[in-house]
Structures are given as C-alpha cells and as structure tokens.
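Researcher: Here's a chain I'd like modeled. Treat it as a single chain, no partners, no ligands.
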Amino acid sequence: GPRKGRGMSVPALSLAASSTAKVTLLDVKRSNQIQITLAKFRPASHEMVRVAVLRLDETLIKADLLPQLRECAPGPEELELLHKYLTGEEPSDRLQPAEQFLLEMAKVPR
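Model: Modeled as a single isolated chain. Structure tokens:
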C-alpha cells in the first residue's frame, strides 16, 4: 500500500532538504534594525557584545550606542518565538544573525 509518513512534518522535511537555509523568525524591519545596530560592533561576536553589556565595558559599548542596543533587547514575544524554535530541537546556528543575537542577549538578566 502507500507509504505512511515517518513522523516528520512537511516544514521539517523542507528544512531538512535545504540544510544551509537560514531560518527567519523576526519581521524584516526588526531584523534590519538589529543588523544595523550589530554592524556598529564589528568585528565583535554576539557573545562579546553580551559580555560587554554585563560588564558595562565602555571600550566596546560606547554610551551613545546604549539606546540603540536597548532597542535590540528581545521582547517577550520574541523570546517565546525563539524558545518554541529551540524546543523543536532545531540548531541555533540555522537562525539568521539577528535571531542569533536575540538568543545571545536573552542570557542577559533584565
């Protein structure tokens, strides 16, 4: 008879088929806002920015960039989206850079 599915949903199959495709969870405007702000910290990694925030390191994070960085903090809805994505056991490195940054910044206590 016809083969039954093997428990994978259609989206999971399409993701598996294009393993190099990046996953986008944010709307384009929000993603662009985060990318523009992140460009100001190059070549620092997302982790380096998070650590600089925790240490109040003014060598990496100048005072005039704090408001922009604050705007990039993940909101409750974004945290929920990221959590749902990760509980689906998808690797975080498949996320777009803006989503990866929110994931890193989610580790900063409010």
